[in-house]
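Protocol step 4 of 5: obtain the predicted structure for the target chain.
Materials: sequence only (see below). No template structures provided, no constraints applied. The aim of this step is simply to have a reference model before the mutagenesis design in step 5. Sequence pasted as it appears in the construct record:
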Amino acid sequence: MSNPQQLRYSKEHEWLSAVENGVATVGITEFAANALGDVVYAQLPAVGDTVTAGETCGELESTKSVSDLYAPVTGEVVEANQDVVDDPSLVNTAPFEGGWLFKVKITDEPADLMSADEYTAFAG
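Step 4 output (structure tokens):
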């Protein structure tokens, strides 16, 4: 398992890209995707929704279970990945590329986001 160094990570196994013009991309980690198994359904927050760091904002359903999706930051959703809604398996096949989940205009960022090395140690 390789966690891209340029991303930051939450304890709920979401990743956050670098912020560009106040907007960051959110997805789940390869660790989380592997733990879920084959993702068959994705309910993502809608454009215009406000998400709050540490709170649920959607869910991913796999052949094994249903898992809540947590927002790693607080802000307004500016884009949801329709490709993942149409083909949820992208979460498994490309969690750090085409399997991203949504983009958020950040209004508040918690201090406990981890670096790739910290997340790798945390996830074991």
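Step 4 remarks: The longest helix spans residues 116-123. The CA atoms of residues 56 and 117 lie 25 Å apart.
Proceed to step 5.
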